[in-house]
Design brief:
Length: 291
């Protein structure tokens, strides 16, 4: 459980990483979470571009770093774990991190799961994607950007993208890349998923890892063949704690968590509800062939 990781971090301190500069691009993602519903949700996603890679993820994963750091330092000073720690922050709607290496554009798709004895670990798969873009003469002004149209098929959907040569990055949100300029907007034919660039800024003290990732210090992902990754992760989403449930005897579940009045069993139930919301609130995947 994450509590164990946090307690270890409180005991042994945190690790520091070298800093660098990044261009951060903010994308407003509008998506349809359920196949049988027309309701749309929105989430802010970011694409951080450094000299040798790009990192795409949910903005919630990094926007709360200062608040998390503040709460962690309070727990460090008190020497006690706050059982309501995770309730203080917004849960990201999208848990994956996608990196693209420059100049090859080799993509790595990373997820965190709980492994043996509930210790967190990263698993991933890698792809060398080559999008078959059809660049068309149509142009469109989107915000402050002059863009040009391109279309492709990917993941069982037809996509229309608008890219800007004024932004000299052959990159875009999610896995999309390969156009002669940054993708400013892209959406599928059925408008299930639509990303639109909202703005950008330079990050002078950029760190690829979030504060919590730094604390966990879990090392590199275990890279799997894509088919094996999908099987493992889909099984995990159905029962995130399945690998350790056998160890949760009534005696363990009735124990009180250190520094709190909460039972371990109650804490685990809260974690199960949070993970169920994270992984199972969407049944309309971006890539239809990954169901």
């Amino acid at each position: 459980m994450r509590k164990i990781v946090i307690l270890l971090a409180l005991t042994f301190g945190i690790f520091t990483f070298a800093q660098e500069t990044a261009n951060r691009f903010f994308y407003n993602l509008t998506y349809k979470p359920k196949k049988d519903s027309d309701s749309l949700l929105k989430e802010m996603m970011i694409l951080d571009i450094t000299k040798d890679k790009s990192i795409y993820r949910d903005y919630s994963a990094v926007s709360q770093d200062s608040l998390i750091k503040d709460q962690m330092e309070k727990m460090q000073r008190s020497g006690q774990f706050n059982p309501d720690f995770q309730k203080m922050f917004k849960q990201p709607k999208f848990s994956a991190t996608i990196t693209k290496a420059y100049p090859s554009m080799k993509m790595q798709y990373v997820e965190m799961i709980f492994g043996g004895m509930a210790a967190p670990m990263y698993i991933s798969y890698s792809e060398n994607l080559k999008f078959d873009w059809k660049v068309e003469p149509d142009t469109l002004k989107i915000g402050e950007y002059n863009t040009q149209k391109a279309t492709t098929e990917f993941g069982g959907r037809k996509w229309t993208a608008w890219f800007s040569a004024d932004l000299p990055f052959q990159d875009g949100p999610y896995k999309f890349s390969g156009l002669p300029g940054l993708i400013v907007k892209i959406e599928d034919e059925g408008k299930n998923y639509s990303w639109e660039l909202e703005g950008n800024k330079n990050i002078k003290d950029f760190q690829e890892k979030t504060y919590m990732e730094t604390l966990m210090n879990m090392g590199d992902p275990k890279d799997l063949p894509k088919k094996e990754f999908l099987k493992k992760f889909n099984q995990y989403k159905k029962d995130p704690f399945g690998s350790v449930r056998q160890y949760w005897t009534p005696e363990v579940m009735n124990q009180t968590m250190p520094g709190t009045t909460k039972k371990i069993g109650d804490y685990i139930k809260e974690q199960e509800r949070a993970l169920d919301e994270l992984y199972n609130s969407i049944n309309n995947p971006i890539e239809l062939n990954e169901e």
